[in-house]
Structures are given as structure tokens and as C-alpha cells.
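Q: Hi! Curious about what RNA-binding protein KhpB looks like structurally. Here's the sequence.
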Amino acid sequence: MREVKATGQTVEEAIESALSQLNITKEQAEIEVLDQGKKSLFGLFGGRPAAVQVRKAIDPVDTAKEFLLSVAREMGVEASVEVHVNGRDVEFRLSGEKMALLIGKRGQTLNALQHLTQLAANKESDQFLTILLDAENYRERRRQTLTNLAERLADKALRTNRAVSLEPMPSYERKVIHSALVNAKKVDTYSEGREPNRYIVITPK
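A: Let's find out. The predicted structure is below.
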């Protein structure tokens, strides 16, 4: 139940009744006063109760979390989620059995889930949220793998004196490559192509 109408002798009493029915706090509610009510004359006649309509406010982070868990269940995975919010950046850390199913080959499934979860969150949000999805610390392990790859391919570019193109990657993985070589004195990096097939080129200076 996300919405109820309630009445009371006062507006506050009506609100409290609605909040109790929804099992939420005032901070989690959107409240519309339908009728301020009217006291009866001498407590006998002409009175009218106050009426309110209260909705449970939509939390985009909760919506995204529920979406993510439901998709995981459809994939046969019962996952636990830790949520970390830093301003408009929201990180979901997944744990449990069968995490490999959610990660997929080279993180492709995890990346797809991250994109869908971000869409679910921003459908309900009045400000753009950036979602990062991680499972069993995969992102850190992937970052280290990409850093090592960047260094190896930079050596190859120098050894062959030819540009080396990497496979298409999502933007945050390309940033890892750029960052790994930003201080390199003998190679440059730049991106080519269009999303989702944008890729990095490492070239000798």
C-alpha cells in the first residue's frame, strides 16, 4: 500500500492515522490536506472531520535496490546488497553465492545490470544519480587487471612503434586505462568510436 486517505478531529490526527496505516514516518511521506475540518458547535452539530491523503514518497535508491534484487532472483541468484550513498553517487555491493552469474564474462553482465539499475533509479529521481554496481570486489580486481593491461600494451606500442587499439569498454573502464598512463612520457592515449563500441588507442609519442 503506497497511498491512503484518513480522517481525524484535526489535520495532525488525520496525518498520524495515515502514517500509522502506511507504517512510515512523516519524512517518508507526501501529504495533501483535503479538508482542514471544522469543529462542531457546542460539540453537537455542524462539525466536519479533517481529511488528508498521504502517499509513501518514492525513494529512487530503494527502487533501484528492489529492481536489482528482483532481477538477480530471476537469474536464480539470492543476493545481499550493501548500499553506500555519497551525494549523487550510489554504490551497490552485491554478495552471496553464484556471483559469477551476475558478473559474467569480463563483467559484461554486471555492466548491463548496472546500466539497467541506473535507469530504474533515475526514473524515480528528480536529480541524476550515478550508480556503481560491484560484486565480490570485482571492480577492484578488474581495475588492477586493466592497469596491468595498459602497461603491457604501452610497452608493445613502444616496442613495435605502432598504435595499439584495445577492445571496446564502458567509460569508467576507459578512465582506468587513461589514468594508468596519464603520466607516461613516451605514449599517449585517446578514445575512438561511438558508444557502446568506444575504445582506447595507445600510441607512441
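A: A fun detail: The chain is about 40% helix and 25% strand.
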